[in-house]
Write a structure and sequence with these properties.
about 120 residues; mainly alpha; 4 helices; single chain; Helix Hairpins
Length: about 120
Amino acid sequence: MAGFFLNVLKLLGAIWYVIKHDEEFHILLFLLLTFLVSGTFFYTYVEGWSVVDALYFCFMVMSTIGNGELVPTTPLSKIFTVVYSLLTIGLFVAIVYKMVYALVLRKKGALDRIRKSYTQKPDD
């Protein structure tokens, strides 16, 4: 269980690092939140789902998990879901890529600092 929390802390640290240092991530995050909110409103209004169910469905679509617990029933919702998935899957992958890249950079930076400390010659 401690390993899980350690990994969550590392992920949150990477997200914080990317938020502070990557302007492109700000745009991607804004788009992601915009799509989540708009999709949630759409499914709440058209399908009559609760806000939590609609948000859950939007996340399942964009992350390609798709459990099949909720399914669009109207033709308009089905067309919206096709367009929504085309727009959001790539966006979700881009955000995950940015977070993983930040984790790798942070790990590489830590390893470089350790290597540098071992390879430095002591002052005579």
